[in-house]
Write a structure and sequence with these properties.
Elements (H helix, E strand, L loop, with lengths): L11 E4 L9 E4 L4 H21 L9 E10 L2 E9 L10 E7 L4 E7 L11 H13 L3 H4 L2 E14 L5 E13 L4 E6 L5 E8 L1 E2 L4 E2 L7 H8 L15
Antiparallel strand pairs: 1-2, 3-4, 4-5, 5-6, 6-10, 7-8, 8-9, 9-10, 11-12
Length: 238
């Protein structure tokens, strides 16, 4: 049985000057130093375990800069954000991971400048790569998906100097038999750029209904530091 770790509300991880390695952090929001240590170890171990099981990784030398305890519709989730530098910077390079309390991977995105300006795979290669990857760790979920469409998807990030980079991939959008959506965005090498599952569409509003913790424009709006993005972004009400 997988060990579970309960977190206090939205603990924040900050890199300290005397850390021994890239995963050593200090945490605000914990009750005691001992509980802070347990939270740190628990979050990092769980995230590493889930990523390894899915064949995913964080670039070498990157730091965990924030964890937050949030909701994915009616499910409690833990969101972990990694960056090449220890201070959180929305809009820049990051790897973000969303896992639920059963250690199911609900979201992963890898926004790096090295992934920018690459060619797109064709539709057949994109679908093949997406399902080969998903079947490798979540076969029961994959077998209940029906492909809706495959199309280009673009995201823009910037580096520390403000230079913008366009990250493009082929988005394989699918619908689960339960009515929720899953998509996988892959590059020309068949590597996963973004994965999201169990996404609810708000038909009345004509936009996504499920929260968007891996999307920096949405996070900024949620935190009150940016405007509400247009549809299909979810409404950022808390």
């Amino acid at each position: 049985m997988t060990q579970r770790y309960e977190l206090p509300t939205a603990p924040i991880l900050r890199k300290t000057a005397d850390t021994k390695n890239s995963l050593s952090t200090s945490i605000t929001g914990a009750d005691t130093p001992e509980s802070a240590h347990n939270i740190e170890e628990g979050v990092m171990n769980r995230a590493e375990h889930v990523l390894t099981a899915a064949g995913l990784s964080v670039p070498e030398g990157w730091h965990p800069v924030q964890t937050r305890r949030e909701s994915h519709d009616d499910r409690k989730v833990t969101v972990v954000r990694y960056q090449p530098h220890p201070e959180r910077a929305l809009g820049g390079e990051h790897v973000s991971v969303v896992i639920d309390d059963e250690d199911s991977l609900l979201g992963y995105t890898r926004m790096t400048t090295t992934a920018a300006h690459r060619p797109l795979p064709d539709d057949a290669d994109a679908e093949r790569a997406a399902f080969e990857w998903l079947n490798g760790f979540a076969h029961e979920h994959a077998e209940k998906l029906t492909v809706q469409w495959i199309d280009r998807h673009d995201e823009t990030i910037h580096d520390s100097a403000g230079t913008q980079y366009l990250i493009s991939g082929a988005k394989v959008k699918t619908r689960h038999s339960d009515g929720l959506y899953t998509w996988i965005i892959v590059d020309d090498r068949g590597e996963v750029i973004t994965y999201e599952r169990d996404i609810r569409w708000d038909r009345g509003a004509g936009r996504r209904g499920t929260e968007m913790w891996m999307h920096d424009r949405w996070v900024a709006a949620r935190e009150g530091t940016g405007p509400q993005p247009n549809a299909p972004y979810a409404i950022t009400t808390s």
